[in-house]
Amino acid sequence: MRAPGGEVVITGGLGFIGSHLVDAYLATGHRVRIIDSNAGAVIDGENYDADPRCAVIRERIEDYLTAGGDFTGVDRVIHAASYVGPASILSRAGRLGHDIIGSTAPVIEACMNAGAPLCMFSSAEVYGRSGVLDEKDDIVVPTQYNTRIEYAVAKTLAEAMVSNSRRHGLRGIVIRPFNVAGARQSRAGGFVMPTFVQQALAGRPITVFAGGDQVRAFIAAGDLTGFLTGYMDLALQGDEVIINVGNPGNAVTIMDLAERVKSLLASPSPIVRVDGRSVHGPHYAEAESFHKIPALRTATDLGWRPRIPLDELILTTADYYRAREDRRAVNAPL
C-alpha cells in the first residue's frame, strides 16, 4: 500500500461489505471516495458525508464513469458494488448478468486508463458444487438457469475479464469471499446470520431452510477487510488472480448455527424447519454449494489468517441489532 493519505475508491461503499471497507481504509489514514447507487445500502452514509476524508457520490458506478468520472491519481479501486443475497437478486432475474458485467467492464477500463490497481469482489457461488473449494478447482455450471446460476455465471465472467485484462496492463486481483457476516448485514438480502440473530432477539421462530444440513464457514467482515488493507499489495505482486477469503474454522451446519444463536442469546425462540420458497417466493433456490468451505491457499501463503471465531461474530451481530433496526429490512419477513 502506498503512503497513508492516498485516496481509495470503493464502489458499493454504503453496502455491508463496502461500508466495512470504508471504515478500514479510513482507520489506516486514507481518504475514501464512495460511489454507491443506494440499491444495497445498509447505512445512510450521513457520517461519511460529514467526514472531510470522504467523498460520497450517490450514483451507479457505470453512470459516474460515463459522465466523465475517472480514477486518475487514486491509490486503488475496490469494486464491491453488486446486487447480492439469495433473496435480493430474485427481482433482477434476467437482468442480473447485465448488471454485473455492465458495472465491472467500465471499472476495469477506467482502472487501466488511470493505472489504478483493482480488487474486484466475486463470490464463492461461482464454484457451483459442494465441498472444500480451492481457487484452482474447476467451476461447475448447472444447466438449470435459476437466478443464483445467473449470478454465479456473471461473476465468473467478471473474474475472467479481470484475469485477461492483466495481459493488457491491469494490476488486478479477484476476491472470492465465503459467507461474510457481522454488524450491518441485513436480513433483507436473505442472509442467514442476521436473520437468525434478529429472530432470536425478537423471540420469533428461527426459520431453518432445506433441513438445516447446509454447511457454511462464516468470516467476520473485519477479517475480510484486514486482508485488503494488509495484504492487497502483496497479492498484486504475485501471479495468483483469484483468492479465496474465508474462515474454515467457523464451518457449521445451518441447524447448528440456529441452535448456537438461540443459546448464546438466551432466546425463547423455537427453531422451525420451513421451505425457503414460502418466505421468499417460488423462485427462491438453495445454493448449488450445499457444503461450502474455503480452502485457504493463496491468502494464507501471503501471511493472512482469519481470527474472529463464530461465537464472537454472532454476539457482535446481536449487539448491533439490539441498538438499532435493520435499515433495509423494514418490509422484509421476520
UniProtKB/TrEMBL annotation:
Residue ranges of every copy of the NAD-dependent epimerase/dehydratase domain listed in the record: 8-234
Top-level lineage group: Bacteria
PANTHER family the record matches: BIFUNCTIONAL POLYMYXIN RESISTANCE PROTEIN ARNA, UDP-D-APIOSE_UDP-D-XYLOSE SYNTHASE 2
UniProt protein name: NAD-dependent epimerase/dehydratase family protein
Species of the source: Nonomuraea longispora
Source organism phylogeny: Bacteria, Bacillati, Actinomycetota, Actinomycetes, Streptosporangiales
